[in-house]
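Sharing a chain and its predicted structure for anyone who wants a worked example. Both blocks are below, sequence first, C-alpha cells second.
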Amino acid sequence: MSMPLKQVAQIGEYGLLAVLAVLVAVLVHRGLASGRLRQLVAGPHGAGPSPARIQALAVTVAFAGYYVTEGLGALSQGEARLPDIRPEALSALGASLGVHLGGKLYERPRRDAGPPDSAPPRRPRRKPIRRRPRGKTQP
C-alpha cells in the first residue's frame, strides 16, 4: 500500500515545521538562560533594551518564518524553485532594517561631545629582547 506523494509532502512539511519549532524553542530558552539573547536587543553601553533592535529582530524572524512557510508550501505543491517574495513583505523588511540602522546612527557617540569620561588604558611598551650572537663567543 503506497501513499500519494502529496500526503507524504504534507507529512514532511509538518514534521519539518515541528523540528524548526523545537529548535527555536531550545535556542530561545538557552539564549534567555545564558543572557546572550538579551545582548541581541540591548542598547549601547549596557543600557536597557533598544526598541529599534527589538522591532528589527521581530520583523526579521517574522519574515524568515513567512518565507520558510511559503517555501514549504511551494515544495508540497511540487515546485522545484524558490518562491517569489511579495513586494509588501520585502518593503516591510527593508523599512524595519532602515529604522534599525537609523537608530544605530543616532546611538553612535558624537566626536564633538567633549572629552570622554574615562580614557582607555594605555598598553605598556615592551622592552626589546636582546639576543646573544650565534657562533663563537669571546672569553
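Comments welcome. The mean pLDDT is 77.
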